[in-house]
Amino acid sequence: MSLLEVGTRSGAALDVEKLTPALGAVVHSFDLAQAQDDASIAAIRRALDEHLVLFFEDQTITPEQQRDFAARFGELYTHPLYPGQTGIPELMVLEYDANRRGHNDVWHTDVTYIQTPPQASLLYAEIIPEVGGDTLWVNTYLAYEALSEHFKALIGKLHAVHDFAKAFRRERFEQYGIADRADKAYAENPPVRHPVVRTNTETGRKALFVNQNFTSHIDGVSERESRAILGYLYEHLQQPEFQVRWRWKPNAVAFWDNRWTQHYALADYFPNHRRMRRATILGDRPV
Ligand SMILES: O=C(O)CCC(=O)C(=O)O
Ligand SMILES: [Fe+2]
To answer: Residues with catalytic annotation?
Structure first.
């Protein structure tokens, strides 16, 4: 047995291939359905801290296996809008085809509209078009670190409001045939405040924590100042040097740290069919 096999089985060492200097790595020779022992989970956690998004290919995991693997990392979140996998509401289904164009072609961090936004998301590809439907991620530590000290000082004490209703309009509920659930979802998800610059309390490293999907405005500045600051930060976050782009195949998995990244799902494959399922793992209150 090679060292690699021993390592993979015990979870002590992973066979990891970096994709860009910024973030992202493919984990080879790893079976998500089998490797759910403590050592494997700890190794994946460490690799996620280092690379921020991990990719696994040729994984044929059932919805139950996906849920169970994700649940090893923390409590799962059930989305109030997206349809769930039959019998497993914690797995949300993102399905687009000739009747429905992709909706995630906007840079975002998942579910920042709650007090304890997810620490990570685990996305499994069921159906992928021949070409198109890639996903991009950006390293928000690098984006923060590339700012001048003056700009860091300006934004360092600011807080921003994140709003479920900004991203999920009533039409989306109608589209999914659940218009009757919209009022309850709005009532249960009032706007929340998070720091514009989020700090990793274990390392002290800082990252940008505003996103185009959910952030409505910066608190305590004028509307025009808020628009100018956010507009600059969004443009800055889109620098290709901070990114990785992933070309999917069916049965591939992406596992991202949702605290120090943003992502963007290209909607360039209409009218082709693409079906993904996501487990979302809750995190801590940002500081
Ligand atoms: O479909 C994708 O590639 C990503 C969609 C998305 O934003 C998500 O799953 O959080
Ligand atoms: Fe997302």
So the answer is: 108, 110, 263, 278
Q: Which atom of ligand 1 is nearest to the CA of 263?
A: 7
Q: What is the pLDDT along the chain (287 residues), one digit of tens a residue?
A: 333 443 344 445 899 999 999 999 999 999 999 988 999 999 999 999 999 999 999 999 999 999 999 999 999 999 999 989 999 999 999 999 999 999 999 999 999 999 999 999 999 999 999 999 999 999 999 999 999 999 999 999 999 999 999 999 999 999 888 999 999 999 999 999 999 999 999 999 999 999 999 999 999 999 999 999 999 999 999 999 999 999 999 999 999 999 999 999 999 999 999 999 999 999 999 99
The ligand 1 atom nearest the CA atom of 280 = 10
At 17, list the tokens.
């291939």
To test ligand 1's pocket by mutation, which of 91, 106, 278, 281 has the most ligand atoms within 8 angstroms of CB? 278
User: Cβ distance 244 to 24 under 8 Å?
Assistant: yes
Q: Tell me which residue range forms the domain holding 77.
A: 3-282
What's the rounded Cα separation, in Å, for the pair 266 and 142?
22
Burial per residue of 105-137, b for 16 or more beta-carbon CB atoms within 10 angstroms, e otherwise: ebbbbbbbbbeebbbbbbbbbeebbeebbebbb
pTM of the complete model: 0.94
CA of 149 to the centre of ligand 1 (A): 33
Q: Is the dihedral of CA 46, 68, 5, 56 positive or negative?
A: negative
For residue 122, the domain's CATH number is 3.60.130.10
Rounded CA-CA distance 38/104 in Å is: 33
On whether the CB atoms of residues 276 and 123 are closer than 8 A, the answer is yes
Residue 147 lies in a domain: yes
**Into how many domains does the chain fold?**
1
